[in-house]
Amino acid sequence: MARNKLIFYYLFLLVMTFCYSQRDKKNFRKDYKYVEATESFYKFHTMSKKGQDAKDMCELEGATIFYPEDQNEADAIRQLWNETQVVLPRIYIGVASWIVKGVFETFDGRPINDVYSNWAPGEPNNANDNEDCVIMRRDGTLNDVNCNDKNPFVCKKTLSSLEWNTNCDIPNLDYTYDATLGKCYKFHSEPKGWREAYATCNAEQSYLAIVDSQAEADHLTRMTASALRDNVQGNLEQPAVFLGFHKRRGVWSTTKGTKLVNSGYSKWGNQQPDGGDNETCGAMFYNGLLQDLKCDLKCFFICEHDVANLSNVFDDRYGASQ
Ligand SMILES: *[C@@H]1O[C@H](CO)[C@@H](O)[C@H](O)[C@H]1NC(C)=O
Ligand SMILES: *[C@@H]1O[C@H](CO)[C@@H](O)[C@H](O)[C@H]1NC(C)=O
Ligand SMILES: *[C@@H]1O[C@H](CO)[C@@H](O)[C@H](O)[C@H]1NC(C)=O
Ligand SMILES: [Ca+2]
Ligand SMILES: [Ca+2]
């Protein structure tokens, strides 16, 4: 009896430590680096994007597009840049003429003169009357450029804004844990095409949900039903929920490569699949039955996140590899 109590107490302590020390551990995501000088996490995106797409990408990752608050942060990022990215010549920063040409503001509405504003000589010059976005060069100077130019960029997350979802072990409170299935899910109520949905889940360190049991299909059906009572955003083109399966070389399979017929759940809806080669992306009706859809249609989708089980958590966090 006493022994059991002790074990429970020990477990309780471990769980409490885990819950409350995430910030102390200075952990956001594996792909972000923590900088003590600014108490923030940063990630250099080396795949260039247009100005707006760069901002959106950072938000998908649960961060925001970086701009230097001041000289101190500009120096810190240049040091990280120097240490980790020897070839990148420039980055987009989160400053632009978002609203009115020539009025440069941060994405969160601060005038550039209130933050770092080290323009290169002769800039901003609004060349060809078409420069509303801002890049920072390796030397720390700023230049206005065309927002359609593709450039690398940096995303930022401050330590103070970090919110940890302890059940799902992920810095995203939108995911809900289902104890029976041992998984976490997020219903996206902003409709997107299948590929964009796939990329969105990936940016959230998750994947487009793969149904592998009737119980999971039931859970996703219930999630969908309750989500539909809330506000639907954007332009829904088909009443359906995209899932992580598709037709590859004529065979329906999950995005992890298992044939759909072997995946544990493959109940098609009435007459489905009916699209031939026109409909090669997987979705479910609101009742959980599967359908094939055109990949470009904008639909709801659900992301799924695997939770490391308790023994893995112990190994990762405490190095207790007994
Ligand atoms: C970049 O790294 C080089 C070599 O390590 C160093 O000499 C230089 O001072 C660094 N520049 C900055 C801005 O940190
Ligand atoms: C696929 O689309 C083409 C062109 O719109 C159409 O002619 C064809 O019937 C469609 N196939 C199926 C199986 O719906
Ligand atoms: C839990 O983790 C252990 C050790 O890594 C592994 O062997 C086991 O399969 C995992 N269980 C589940 C349900 O994932
Ligand atoms: Ca310019
Ligand atoms: Ca269909």
TrEMBL record:
Signal peptide interval: 1-21
Keyword annotations of the record: Disulfide bond, Signal
Superkingdom of the organism of origin: Eukaryota
Start and end residues of each C-type lectin domain: 42-156, 180-304
Pfam families, A to Z: Lectin_C (PF00059)
Keyword Disulfide bond: yes
Database matches in CDD domains: CLECT (cd00037)
Keyword tRNA-binding: no
Sections of the chain in a coiled coil: none
PANTHER family to which the protein is assigned, alphabetical: MANNOSE, PHOSPHOLIPASE, LECTIN RECEPTOR RELATED (PTHR22803)
Entry protein name: C-type lectin domain-containing protein
Organism annotation: Loxostege sticticalis (Beet webworm moth)
